[in-house]
Amino acid sequence: MVSTFVLILAAVVSIFVSQIFSKISVNYISMIIGVGLFLIPSLGSHVENFDSDIFIGMIVAPLLFFEGQATRLNSVGKELKHIVQTAVALVVLCLVFVGFGVHIAAGISLPLAFILAAISTPTDATAMESVTNGLQMPKTEGTFLKMESLFNDASGIILLNMGTLWYLNGYINYQETVSDFLISAVGGVLVGFAFAWVMVLFRQTLVRTSYNSLNAQILLYIVEPFVLYYLAEEIHISGIIAVVCAGLVSNAESQRSRLTNSLQVHLGNDIQKMITEIFNSVVFVILGFMFTKIIADENISANSLTWLGIGILLYIINVLVRYVYGRTRLKFNNLSGWIFSLGGVHGAVTLALAYTLAEYHVKNSDFNLVLMSESVLIILSLIVPTIVFRFILPHEAPDEEVTKKITEIRVNMVHQALDAVNKMYLPENVKNSVIFDLMAQKQRTRTRDFVKEWMKVVKHSEFTGDEKELEMRAFMNALGQERVYLDMISQSEVEYQDYIFELYNEVLMAESLVIGPTVSEAKDEVE
Hints:
Layout: H1 2-20, H2 26-39, H3 41-44, H4 52-69, H5 73-78, H6 80-106, H7 110-119, H8 125-131, H9 139-169, H10 174-207, H11 214-234, H12 239-256, H13 262-296, H14 298-301, H15 306-328, H16 334-342, H17 348-356, H18 364-392, H19 399-422, H20 428-441, H21 447-459, H22 465-492, H23 497-526
Helix pairs in contact: 1-2, 1-13, 2-13, 4-11, 4-12, 4-13, 4-17, 6-7, 6-9, 6-15, 7-9, 7-18, 8-18, 9-10, 9-12, 10-11, 10-12, 11-12, 11-13, 15-16, 15-18, 17-18, 19-20, 19-22, 20-22, 22-23
């Protein structure tokens, strides 16, 4: 519990810091916080030893579930050919070229070289976001990279199992490997879809009865990826593929049940975003912490720099194979080919797979070599595209320009609301209260203004029933005017449309906060 609390606290700190340094990806900031966490013994000593099973099951699995939920199921159907090409064929090609390349160049045994190659095959969609911060990823290349990262983890795991058995037994069983892959992948798809469909039907049946409970439904939704992952792993199929497929099914559910119970869907989406943001930061805090711990290990630092050369070789061969495959099989042009090849960023899953070797009787020197080499691969896969993409990808609108324009729109929006309130006949205390809240919406009130209003709430009795109703109607009128203004301005300011829709959503949520408590109080009075 203490370890979890420390990691989550570090993730929260990194999210706050990222708001200050907005031009730096929160993932890099989380890694730096992770490094700092290790260097502060009073904090780092409370972090438990890394466990790949817990890490993948408790953090990676729900992240992939939510990532799958953000992807439309029919998009996967359209991209099925490309998914097979990138998550299976490309993975096998990378395994062969990287395995033999490392074996020849570094002079290590072929089984160990293939272990290194297998661990280097999975890519990470979460990590890719850190290298495209402030940049526009082309839609086609972005779709390919996203689909690949959703499904290639299972391929990497199966190939790693093959390489590990080869290392331990001295021979490779191709038939068993292919059989295991088919059972694991197909079984993961079938169990993931079946489990998710049963859950969807259960939720949808329950929501249409008088026995539905909002909080219980949300909790059921949150625990779904954890239960499914460990259930799938228990019956020896791919838990990763199972949770991804379950997420895809849940996407279709949310599309068709938005108005069946809008409060439940809205709350579920908010909790999903919160968990995703926190878990993403936790992943990179752990990466930063583990990198530092690996480098600080006395046994590793005393070794030769063979691991550095192997790590660089792993990265170069992977990039070149991806580039050639992108040009020849995926029909990319030169620029798109480099975007696809460099966009295959490695992260949490790669590190977790490296640590699974601790469960086998792998020599300590070989285990350390794998950890250090894969760490170099991860660092290079993050740093190189971060630099290169700055020169080959279009930049998003400057933050200062966007902030200035949205602030202007927000101020004009609130002025529309204030004009509407001032035209209404309202008791002075009600009008002042509504105007203060609207001014706060404009983000022009100070903390001391809030303190003064807080003191008024504490000292004075609450509004009467009639005053509450007048306040609610004043807000409904004011916020309605804001929505009308935003609807109008969104048609003329097309380049800022997404930001304007965010403001529109903010107004709708404010409206629900005004109406919701008033309705609840009215119900309580009736009862």
